[in-house]
Hints:
14 helices, BirA Bifunctional Protein, domain 2, binds zinc ion, 414 residues, 8-stranded mixed β-sheet, Rossmann fold, alpha+beta, 16 strands
Amino acid sequence: MKVRSIRGFHDILPEDIGRWHHIEELAKNLFELYGYSEIRIPALEFTEVFARGLGTSSDIVEKEMYTFTDRDGSSLTLRPEGTAGVVRAYIENSMYTKTPQSKLYYTGMMFRHERPQKGRYRGFYQIGAELFGADAPESDAELIAMNHNFFGSIGLSGSVTLELSSLGDGECKPAYKSMLTDYFNGHKDRLCEDCQRRLGTNPLRILDCKQKTCIEISKDAPKMLDNLCESCTEHFGRVKDSLDSIGVPYEINPKIVRGLDYYTRTVFEFTTDQLGAQNAVAAGGRYDGLVKELGGPETPAVGFAMGIERIVLLHQQVVPEGFGRRVDIYIAYLGDEARNAAFSLAHELRSAGARVGADYGGKSLKSQMKRADKSGARYTIIIGEDELSRGVVKLRDMEKSSEDEIALDLKSQP
Ligand SMILES: [Zn+2]
Ligand SMILES: [Zn+2]
């Protein structure tokens, strides 16, 4: 029996990796333009990092984490997202003592035991950015603008919509929560089983429920945006003004809840309708309480994460061609002596920085030319016995389908 991968986990194959590199490179270059540095954190953390960070009432902690007991009895979890681990690293390395603001980005694999569907995996990649030590609304706007510019740089501005809202802070969020509890209590028997439980743990999550009747009931529920305190209203107003001033378009969507407990004030999503159902390809927001929650000093913070698989899917639709595997020059040969010359020439050209394709399997010239074509090479060098003795090779321009003889004395090569 053949071995196989775990359901919901996937390979990224050589024919696709060019697109991945392209997207990841553009993101990294752009983030560095804004002053962000990469941080690499472990894929495995103590479970409490996520349980305390994401909140025990979140869907992720409740039912999606890959958690197991280590040999010494401690509970470990494969990271379901990046923020909690970056916050843990920020605190553990006392980064707040080094600079007043820390701008960090990360990329890597995340793990969630969800139902696999198109563009959604159980093992999936994210790129994210976190800004610590900034509470000004202009910082939220700058981070959102960076995310917006990323979609522009990969040609997806027209494919995504920025949705924006505010979830309030420690002052207005609790009051809103109890308002929401009162409202949903009045409709309790029609709520789904999950939501009846959420009513006691986190009524905000009911607004996120996908059950028909819950959506129906949620329609008339009080909205956070109508119940922000004065300072949250001012903060949100300045976020919007800053985005307006640099021409970043957005839509206000008061229904953004975000699945995680740690968000405060600004929340946003970049969504697309080009992947079937309305889908978020990036999401983030402010989380002023999380650093303290995980044992650090009170530190305002804001960040976002993007799902690379879904961005790759979207990118394929908009820019279908041009990311295949490429070599610059393919070397074909005829005969044993020519094979040795081809072997040396390939080595020399690669040392000079050219991407060279060649195989030494003694296939016919015709099948070598087929491989040259498949490799995407711009040029093919053809070495025959006759040419070898005359100190020349054939150079074929694969785009123009033209051939020239050029002087290249391969016999005198060491
Ligand atoms: Zn429900
Ligand atoms: Zn407030």
